Amino acid sequence: MTLSPTPAYLELCRRNQRHYRLHHAIGILHWDSATMMPPRASGARADALAELESLLREWQTDPALATLLAQADAESLDPLQRANLRESRRVWLRATAVPPALATQRSLVAMRCEHAWREQRHRHDWPGFLENFKPLVELVRREAGCLADALDVGRYDALLDMHEPGLRDSEVSRLLGHVRNWLPGLIGQIRERQRSQPCLIPQGPFALAAQRDLSEAVMRALGFDFQAGRLDVSSHPFCGGTFEDIRLTTRYSEYDPLAGLTATIHETGHALYHMGLPESLREQPVGAPRWGAIHESQALMLEKQLGLSPAFIRWLAPLLRQHLGEQPAFATDNLIHLFQRVEPGFIRVDADEVTYPAHVILRYDIERALIEGEIEAEDIPVRWNAAMRELLGIDPGELYGQGCLQDMHWACGMFGYFPGYLLGAMYAAQWAARIRREQPDLEQQVEAGEFGVVIDWLRQHIHRHASRYDSNELVRIASGEALDPDYLRQHLMARYLDD
Amino acid sequence: MTLSPTPAYLELCRRNQRHYRLHHAIGILHWDSATMMPPRASGARADALAELESLLREWQTDPALATLLAQADAESLDPLQRANLRESRRVWLRATAVPPALATQRSLVAMRCEHAWREQRHRHDWPGFLENFKPLVELVRREAGCLADALDVGRYDALLDMHEPGLRDSEVSRLLGHVRNWLPGLIGQIRERQRSQPCLIPQGPFALAAQRDLSEAVMRALGFDFQAGRLDVSSHPFCGGTFEDIRLTTRYSEYDPLAGLTATIHETGHALYHMGLPESLREQPVGAPRWGAIHESQALMLEKQLGLSPAFIRWLAPLLRQHLGEQPAFATDNLIHLFQRVEPGFIRVDADEVTYPAHVILRYDIERALIEGEIEAEDIPVRWNAAMRELLGIDPGELYGQGCLQDMHWACGMFGYFPGYLLGAMYAAQWAARIRREQPDLEQQVEAGEFGVVIDWLRQHIHRHASRYDSNELVRIASGEALDPDYLRQHLMARYLDD
Ligand SMILES: [Zn+2]
Ligand SMILES: [Zn+2]
């Protein structure tokens, strides 16, 4: 037996593998909790999950890891191994930067805040929410401070970095500033143009089984592999499970069949990313997808770039009529109008792709200032409503459940995630522009239900790289240039203002 | 803060709790593998389960546990705590008695043997099976030897003890000897009597959804709590999940609707045991059910004692017709004949309650002699076929898949479990006799669909005790006397020979 030349690196891989397998168990149990678990089991399940999660934290913060990481760094590694070492260090840094007592306290306060929020949002109870939220913000600031020290960046930078390695506030501010300049004008132009457009609403009810069959047919056409994943129902759609066993969920509304279908297409985009990760890297950190904006771009690529395109809707329309029955609202032209309808509204998750950026910009402004200590939690409602008026011309007043209480993110103590939704749309626009350049007959293919050209491009240029490159490198390798927010503007102009 | 007077015992409980929570995760993942998991995930799932199971073994064999058990023994404990200490020691003893290298090797060889057996039984390939089975038997003998040393009993005793604490071969031999004396004669008498009995076979197909609804209705009537469990489909019915989240599975056959229903009722008996365990002991070894014969008795109580009784079938018949449609075979009298049909056959799991004991006796004779080294694996087929001729008057010849290759138990290296099936039937007969004595109007209640009197008796006298008493104490506490195999004979005589 010869001694391996990289003993520390190999031991690190062995540990990563163990962590991954525990992740697998946690992922499936979380999915089960949301889809299958009978209600009386929730207490025991929470205990079991807490046990596994604390065990994972224990493993990830083992002091021996610091030594291993340093030793592996001195070994002679190839570029892929080096990337894996970098990603392993990232996981370790995030697990160890925050003192365990602070992390635990933050997690408890966040759970309490989120739990109370579930009711408070329906009662528009901002003062009640504030009671839990103020101490939570304080704890998140301290946690962000610890991460900021470890990374040697600002507090909000540190939170952005959690979701998107290397992303800094200066960049987010530049990118969102670009959109801020042209968005209100563009919304106005499109609204003006759509004013006289007829648009029939589908008349339900639509059987849930038929909606499910339709969803599955569309997923299959997009390349979802039902030998490596499932589709089930949960109250909030998500893409769960593990990379090799993807548990996608959706929800169906009896009277709004397009909502469930849209959610399914979105989650299928997330799922295909996992299905396209290289098998050989599966259990290592470098084999994970890029989370944050890159992941969101995979979902938005399918949901918006592809799913709202007239070519896709022309392919979809007969399939939809076949499953849900004929009616005037399902005429192809009307479906295009329905899917492409632009209308300012209070709720982010219901927003169309044109007004959606406004929802992100508003949240970014507030959460950045909150984390940096420029404003306090009490200041949120006034700022929220003012920004809604300025960006979309509407004001939720004291109906906080339709305003600053609508999202789960802040109630869970999750800050720095919102910009990823808009950056994801920018990335998706850039991928789509690249594919169009490479494939002059893209539209004909899509209309014929041949989506391989889109999916294969994503597999080839994004999925197979997993976490080998950081997002800046990845966008250059995939599209040949740095992220350019003007692709999003060009896309919206072309789709909504050209003829 | 005052120091607890039982620090070692409390630390032991804390560790038991951790083990239990890991068990919860393992239980749900196993259920998911059999019911929900897409096929391509099986490799990753096996890895994740192996990781969790090796972690559990690591925890259970932690040398600190030996010290804790000794220290707790010297603390002042109440009787329930003492029972919990006894059960904790039992778990520890079983985990530590076998050297890890031997346990691992046995587990690998067993997996290989079982995997090959899945095909070999269909090809009746006894020589092929023998290649894997001979080394497996050798390893099981060594493992049993280690357990026997730790318990200071014989090798086969040690295997019996794994499933039923305190059960010894001398007792099994006595109990099965009792049945051996009267069984062949009884089978002959019943067969003679049923010879002229008309019996129509149901004419399918029967929709699986209707069978599922019928199963659920029967489960509900028997007291299964769908807020604390589920019913799903798997190729082999089982009662999985965890005590607080019971995942029961069944299978439906389009042409044999009684098979799926019978399996469901059997598994519901197992499930009700778990549902009746005391919440306060949930995470401790003393809070577990008694496995082996006691557990089997809960299933057989519902499936055979209750489920094959004319009163139950009179209640079931209209419900069955309502779900599956009217036909001559579903006339109440014919259903009674169908359910109570006695016919010697090759396959244990298809056997009626009268010929079933013969299948157990035959396996017991062979596996006991095999473990004790009185025979070798090569001797099995000849012995098997001879015993089949002697006990049931039929001979599978060289169709080993219908003979000694039919069960998974031996192929998995599981010995000492078979007697529990017959002891379970004896226990069930004893419970039923006791309930009949206490409830003179039992039949009327059952016919009216009021099963509370049966289920409540089981809850009160069996379920709520969990593992507080060993099986001998439990049977005395529950029924007022020691296990008496004559109850089974009396039950079969009354059901099949009285008028
Ligand atoms: Zn998404
Ligand atoms: Zn059973």
From TrEMBL, chains A, B:
Pfam families: Peptidase_M32. Its EC number is 3.4.17.19. It catalyses: Release of a C-terminal amino acid with broad specificity, except for -Pro. The keyword Protease applies. It is an enzyme of class 3 (hydrolase). SUPFAM superfamilies: Metalloproteases ('zincins'), catalytic domain. PROSITE patterns: PEPTIDASE_M32 (PS52034). Transmembrane segments: none annotated. Belongs to the peptidase M32 family. This is Metal-dependent carboxypeptidase. It comes from Chitinimonas lacunae.
